[in-house]
Design brief:
Helix content is 41%, strand content 16%. With 194 residues, the protein is α+β, with helices and mostly antiparallel strands. A three-stranded antiparallel sheet has the order 1-2-3, with no helix packed on it. A hairpin with a 5-residue loop joins strand 4 and strand 5 (58-59). It is elongated, with a radius of gyration of 23 Å.
Length: 194
């Protein structure tokens, strides 16, 4: 393995460990020329299906494209990079389980949205707004309404979470609380709308 520091092709393995449920081997290496230590990852090359785009073009699956989209959705959200990587791993397992040679980009996008929705609803709305190409604010509000109705249905099925204040029940978020804040015009009072 070529050293990323001095580009010498000779290195030795210091440590090997399996990670990600045994699907990846992590190796710590040391360059025999300069002594620089670095990490490499080895995974079995599995045949992930070709992606059929909306316009009919076919292109190889790109893990990096999925990861970039997920990272943008989770930007400034309390979800670790490791959890984001695990979402991509889950997408890949799903694609491999299909056993198909080609899959539509739409199918991949819908699967990514499903997985994001289970982890963080704000990230889900971000991803959905780009993926579904919301035309205006009404599309955004409609998606929020659908999301809130779905979460309220889920709340009815499970018992309420214990509260620090047993007599007070937390109120559900209002749509206006979920919408991004727009800059105020000069002289506007932010409290006047309530």
């Amino acid at each position: 393995m070529r050293c990323p520091h001095c580009h010498n092709p000779e290195s030795r393995v210091l440590d090997s460990r399996t990670i990600k449920e045994g699907t990846v081997i992590r190796r710590r290496r040391e360059c025999l020329e300069c002594g620089h230590r670095f990490t490499t990852y080895e995974r079995a090359e599995e045949t992930i299906p070709l992606v059929v785009k909306k316009d009919g073009r076919r292109e190889p699956y790109s893990r990096e494209k999925i990861l970039v989209g997920i990272r943008k959705a989770f930007e400034k959200r309390p979800v670790s990079a490791q959890e984001q990587e695990e979402l991509v791993d889950e997408v890949e397992r799903y694609l491999l389980s299909l056993g198909e040679k080609e899959v539509s980009s739409r199918l991949i996008g819908e699967r990514v949205m499903e997985l994001i929705k289970k982890v963080d609803q704000v990230a889900y709305v971000r991803f959905a707004s780009v993926y579904r190409r919301f035309r205006d604010l009404s599309d955004f509000i409609e998606e929020l309404r659908t999301l809130m109705e779905g979460s309220q249905e889920g709340e009815e099925e499970k018992p309420p979470a214990p509260s620090r204040h047993p007599k007070r029940r937390p109120r559900p978020p209002r749509v206006k609380d979920l919408l991004p804040r727009l800059p105020l015009e000069e002289g506007e009072d932010p409290e006047s709308e309530e």
